[in-house]
Amino acid sequence: MVEFIPDPEIFKDYVFNPEFIEKRVQNYAYLNAGLTLAFNGKKFISNRGLFDLLQEETGSDGLYSLGYYRGKHSANGQLEIAFTHTNNYGEEYFSFVNGQYTSDGGTHLSAFKEGFLKGIQTFYKKDYRSEDVREGTTAAIAIKLKNPVFESQTKNKLGNSDIRAWVVQEVRNAVEDWLHKNPEASKKLEQKITANESLRTELNAVKKEAREAAKKIALKIPKLKDCKYHLDDGEDGEESTIFITEGDSAAGSIVSSRDVMTQAIFALRGKVENVYGKKRAAIYKNEELFNMMMALGIDNDIEGLRYAKIVIATDADFDGFHIRNLLLTFFLSYFEELITAGHVYILETPLFRVRTKKETRYCYTEKERDEAAVALGSQSEITRFKGLGEISPKEFGQFIGEDIRIVPVSVNTLKQVPQVLDFYMGKNTPERREYIMKNLIEDAG
User: Fold this and answer.
1) What is the C-alpha to C-alpha distance for residues 295 and 177, in angstroms, rounded to an integer?
2) Overall fold of domain 50-201
3) Range 397-400, long-range pairs (CB < 8 A, 24+ positions)
């Protein structure tokens, strides 16, 4: 038995997140087909392994029946893959090594991508470009190795270079064989690749128009205060963070108190464009979104990401929440993998300051405020922070230092994302208005 009891002095008012635990338990079920796991009376079981994982993630969004392969145990290890394509932008991968979710991929994932491309090229006897094959891909790969070597203590990226040839060859053979056995799916995949080629040509025309702007900002991106270390700088870059803030006042507090070695800031002018339902070309026609994309280094694909953490830092008011939603819509529409790989966070800053001449306490909830007011006495002064700009640089430093509070942005299943975006960011005004009014009335009651 393994038991973990949180220390109340360190974790204070801790709570377990059942959604996170259920997701982890469900992954273990996918990786151990036939094994039943129980959590709080709920049972988790998978009979088809990664096939079930991808089926759950994509639902009816898959353009063709799921591809699946499970290899036998060998001297190299064991390989299991599942794949399909959707009409979503970008690529989505779920990679595992010995049961560990490798959110940053590694050699097994890059070898899968190479083998996937080669298998398709061999089957169709065409020299397709990798971006045309991979656009819209949703896939899962799990390998079991005797001696895995991870690139960090968090074990989220595999570093074994010796497995490349084995994984590439086995994936290539598996994909080619599956396409031969599934002619209807192979036709739909070919149509998808052809459509991707057309979209790339259209996008390149838009990129050409933006090329001059790109040259101008290549050395200095407007509104970006960069840091020294980035994601590709090894251990030094593992803590690299970029704060996306609203307005210069909020950015000013962070700039004055940040760690210039690992913390960068990108300041928005205000509310960004709602990109829901728009083609990817919309990014290149919007200067602010284009600059933000260039600052993050994800112009070509997310493998160029320059920061380990993307932290959305907006005011705790209605405008701030709206900007947060607009940014999340941007990421979920075009760069979904940034969220599923655990790179996007929300910054929590204190809502209240309770102080006397001798002591100051910062509070993140009304409960903390009331407790601090009682502890410090009736002479204490209570301040409600309306925006990040109201917090002085001297105060702000402690909120983005060692005790920083950030909440990871996550999704339960990919298939729910389109419905959620359509409801909150689409044009269903009457339904959304009814939902808001109903919940406002319930809250008021």
Assistant:
1) 42
2) Ribosomal Protein S5; domain 2 (3.30.230)
3) 397/257, 397/258, 398/362, 399/347, 399/349, 399/350, 399/362, 400/243, 400/254, 400/257, 400/258, 400/263, 400/347
3-state secondary structure of 329: helix
Cβ(93)–Cβ(150) below 8 Å: no
**Count of residues in the chain:** 445
3-state DSSP assignment of residue 245 = strand
Q: Could you read off the pLDDT of 84-107 as tens digits, one per residue? A: 999 888 899 999 999 999 988 999
Q: Rounded to an integer, what distance in angstroms lies between the CA atom of residue 345 and that of residue 308?
A: 11
> Within 10 A of 287 (CB to CB), how many other CB atoms are there?
13
Partners of 137 in beta bridges: 85
Number of other CB atoms surrounding residue 359 within 10 Å:
12
Domain extent listing, the chain: 50-201, 220-349+389-411, 352-384
Is pLDDT of 260 > 80?
Answer: yes
**Threshold 0.90, pTM exceeds:** no
Chain-centre distance of CA 353, in angstroms? 32
Residue 63: HSE in the Cβ half-sphere, 13 Å Cα cutoff: 21
* Of 340, 339, 312, 317, the residue nearest 327 (C-alpha): 312
Q: What is the CATH number of domain 220-349+389-411?
A: 3.40.50.670
- Asked if 30 contacts 51 with a C-beta cutoff of 8 angstroms, the reply is no
Instruction: Please write the tens of the pLDDT for every residue from 276-329.
Output: 888 888 888 888 998 999 899 988 778 889 999 999 998 877 888 889 999 999
CA dihedral (195, 197, 198, 204) in degrees, to 10, reads: 140
- Per the CB < 8 A criterion, the answer to whether 305 and 296 are in contact is yes
The C-alpha atoms of residue 353 and residue 61 are separated, in whole angstroms, by: 48
Beta bridge partners of 329: none
HSE-up (13 A, CA, CB side) for residue 35: 11
